[in-house]
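Lecture 7, part B: from sequences to assemblies.

Below are the input chains for today's worked example.
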Amino acid sequence: MAEITSLRDAVAQLVHDGDTVALEGFTHLIPHAAGQEIIRQRRRDLTLVRMTPDIVYDQLIGAGCAKKLIFSWGGNPGVGSLHRFRDAVQNSWPVPLEIEEHSHAGMANRYVAGASGLPFAVLRGYRGTDLPKHTDTIKTITCPFTGEELAAVPAINPDVSIIHAQRADRAGNVQMWGLVGVQKEAVLAARRSLVTVEEVVDELTPVPGQVILPTWAVTAVAEVPGGAHPSYASGYSERDNEYYAYWDSIGRERDSFQRWLEEKVFTTEVAQ
Amino acid sequence: MMSVAAARALSGGQRVFVGIGLPSTAANLARRTHAGDLVLIYESGTLGSKPTRLPASIGDGILADTADAVISVPEVFNYWLQPGRIDVGFLGAAQLDKFGNINTTVIGTDYADPKVRLPGAGGAPEIAANCHEVYVVVRQSKRSFVEQVDFITSFGHGRGKGDREKLGLPGAGPTLVITDLGVMRPDPDTAELVLTQIHEGVTVEQVKEATGWDLKVAPDLTTTPAPTEAELTALRELKAAK
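Predicted structure of the full complex, as structure tokens:
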């Protein structure tokens, strides 16, 4: 059964130094507040997993929380580069960052295999690209029925997956809807999970297209209104497009980033 | 001009895999002008989006709110893209070479110590493999149009005709490259990109200057007709809509 707890306590209990951690959310419902709490608690040596490392991973990488990144597209969507990510890859600042690079199709299938309890996934992918030369988690397998050569990628089973959703009830059942990306798979693939939600309600009202994660499939739920900002939560908030552009000016230089960390993360206590 | 030329390449009820930026502008412009029943598919998980303004990102809420269906990301790639249900994939490129191979991963030949680290693959390798055709939309310069890309993120025509078939890639690969200067198409015999069209006011010399290989020019080179009033109005309305 999911424990309903505070963000601070949930991160303290569920995220440990050296863990493999996935924070998922495909443009929508990105768990930014949880990412900043991980920075605040100064976790180190994390292997971060995410299809689209964007601002929240730029922050975690720049703060020195990560030793490795498993990903398929790293950028500031609609704006340009992630400068902290680039600085870590090109200059090892603040610490060296190992990368394991896939395509979206490969990453999505790795989560599906993880959620399915399978050791690997097959897909018709990567053919002709240079990715398999540099990523040893891309192999080839022959179909036993047709003889077709296909790509095989290992399951992702994070120690902990963290997502943001719209609502949970007091029993810890989680409801989300809209663009649901790969969040359900990330939670089901993980050993432990944390869902931050816009609100905890007495009773969940059914919504078209909703995804339910039953309380027994989730480890912890924390109420964090606005916890996806600057991304959005359909039905609750709009995407703050200006913030994505603004981040470029913060993330571009080490000094401005350090100032941002001090002012907006380390000296800010989370509510509760 | 680039978005108008790209919009014109789309027609009828084609199913288009759309990326943000120029591809999205072009696809939405086509839907508002000559191809009203174009089916827009975004990798965030929207099938048949009909946005009333330009989306700010592939996951803009307006794409989900106006879609025929909203699906998960594994479903987009496994059920819709992989089996070949999508006609046209629109891709951008940091580097493009003379056989239409695309690099969006690293600049520099040492992957572990790159000159510039780019965003990476995203959905592109499988879009380039599995869509029936690929249109590449990219600004042209000597830096971006190179003899051979530093890293193949998405396979175009390899080192020439027949390379796609050898790999068993189902789609036709890049059949059209649209730049701010003109349009290139693969030569039917060699698969090398050849300049087939220049935009109004551009000279062949200018295009050659902005290409990092000895660009061949089609004997029947044409000029892109100037944007019509209707296209310009639709483009302005699209860009102004909030």
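Note for the exam: Chain A is about 30% helix and 25% strand. Keep this in mind when comparing with the next example.
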